[in-house]
Specification:
By secondary structure, this protein is an alpha/beta fold. It has helices spanning 9-21, 32-37, 40-47, 58-63, 66-72, 83-90, 97-104, 117-121, 123-134, 160-169, 205-216, 244-255, 297-302, 320-330, 371-389, 391-394; strands spanning 2-3, 29-30, 76-81, 109-113, 138-139, 143-146, 152-156, 180-185, 190-193, 196-198, 220-225, 237-240, 260-263, 270-272, 291-293, 309-316, 335-340, 352-359, 362-370. 37% of the residues lie in helices and 23% in strands. Ligand PMT binds next to helix 11, helix 13 and strand 16.
Length: 395
């Protein structure tokens, strides 16, 4: 566990205690700034091991070198992770023990950021986090609330018990090993003429988070994506498409050999009936576009034989539960994740989201959190359902 210099360093002591209580062996690396906040002796007493601090400490390096430490760990958790440390590791800098350890680590890495809300909101910090996530780093939080500086907002370190819970949940990754998953993400673009199209506000973040987490969980992931501004997660096979018809073809083709299909894309229900060859000219005060219905991709996947486990999303501005339950049934889905859209937080383009998940005979609420954490929680439910349906494949 890496501890950086922030007021939340005191909570990291509790985190060590909670992890030890769950029978995990913990070795702690503290940055120089972290040692200004909490004495290494605290972490030594709680972890039962000497605390590592200095990259160039000859005695420590002899006892356990930074490379040895990186190989020893099954998982690296940096909590609290400061803006400075996130920037460093996002760019491969290695000028202290913790950043060097990150660079040498081959195990899964989790970061639990903690900083002032403005620092967290700064574009460069968000870019660093996105970069780390695209490298497979798992981000837990931060949480919202009152900060040590008196300001309100996102930036508090997630509580130790919750960090522990999320890290331990990750320990079941092999449950999806070798499972073929097709995920659709992003919007579709329905062209009107060579320069215009009809689309929606989907950014692809939810679908890409699911793809990244499914790869981390050992699945073979095919990501069929509409036009978005995101890097495909390392390890996922990206199939870029533009229109609903192209998405239909790609999804159906890849779902024939899929175990699970997750439809996170916001597919246009209709497309312009005709595609003008030249730019449509502005004639008259009003104009009209005749639309024709696009095929329902997910319903078609649910008709495939053999049928993969089919997971849909429902994006609603009203009556979420009823519409979601109706889609679950009418499209013959195994599970549906319903989210509110058009609200201040969550849904389209937001980094955070909340879901109400329904399946025949059950439901679960997944509270508002970052889309990556939500993806882990949803995948845990999907994994349960898949193993329920495939007891033979599972054994
Ligand atoms: O991409 P983000 O900015 O991160 O936003 C995430 C999201 C809000 C787009 C995502 O969480 C979500 O809700 N995706 C589904 C959006 C949607 O189109 O919902 P729907 O209720 O209209 O469709 C229901 C289901 O049918 C969805 O699984 C959809 O992929 C599928 N569908 C819809 C129409 C169609 N022609 N074919 C389909 O497969």
């Amino acid at each position: 566990m890496g501890v950086c210099g922030g007021i939340a360093a005191y909570k990291a002591a509790e985190l060590v205690r909670v992890l030890r209580k769950q029978d995990h062996e913990v070795r702690v690396v503290m940055t120089a700034a972290a040692r200004q906040f909490v004495a290494p002796l605290t972490f030594q007493a709680l972890s039962g091991h000497a605390v590592h601090g200095d990259l160039l400490d000859v005695e420590q390096e002899q006892a356990m070198s930074h490379i040895h430490l990186a190989r020893w760990a099954d998982l690296l958790l940096i909590a609290p992770a400061t803006a400075d440390m996130l920037a460093k590791i996002a760019h491969g800098l290695a000028d202290d023990l913790l950043s060097t350890l990150y660079l040498a680590a081959e195990c899964p890495v989790f970061v639990a950021p903690a900083m002032n809300q403005a620092m967290w909101g700064k574009v460069v910090t968000q870019e660093n986090i996105a970069r780390l996530q695209s490298h497979g780093v798992h981000c837990i939080g931060p949480a919202a609330g009152e900060q040590a500086c008196g300001e309100q907002g996102l930036g508090r370190m997630v509580e130790p018990a919750e960090i522990c819970r999320q890290v331990l949940k990750y320990e079941q990754p092999s449950l999806l090993a070798g499972v073929n998953i097709v995920i659709s993400a992003g919007p579709t673009r329905e062209p009107l003429d060579p320069v215009r199209y009809i689309t929606n506000r989907s950014s692809g973040k939810m679908g890409y988070a699911l793809a990244a987490e499914a790869v981390s969980a050992g699945a073979n992931v095919t990501l069929v994506s509409g036009p978005v501004n995101l890097l495909a997660p390392a390890g996922a096979k990206l199939i870029p498409v533009e229109t609903a018809l192209q998405m239909y073809d790609a999804v159906i083709m890849h779902s024939r050999s899929a175990d699970i299909y997750i439809g996170a894309a916001a597919v246009a229900d209709y497309r312009p009936q005709t595609l003008a060859e030249s730019k449509i000219k502005k004639d008259g005060e009003t104009g009209s576009i005749v639309l024709t219905k696009n095929p329902d991709i997910i319903a078609a996947v649910a008709r495939l034989q053999p049928k993969p486990l089919v997971v849909g999303f429902a994006a609603e501005t009203d009556d979420l539960e009823n519409y979601a339950k109706h889609k679950l049934q009418s499209k013959n889905l195994d599970l549906i994740a319903a989210n509110w859209v058009g609200q201040a937080e969550g849904g389209f383009d937001s980094d955070r989201n909340a879901l109400q998940v329904f399946w025949p005979g059950g439901q679960q609420i997944l509270a508002m959190t970052d889309k990556r954490t939500l993806a882990v929680q949803l995948l845990n439910l999907i994994t349960e359902k898949w193993h329920e349906k495939n007891p033979v494949k599972n054994s």
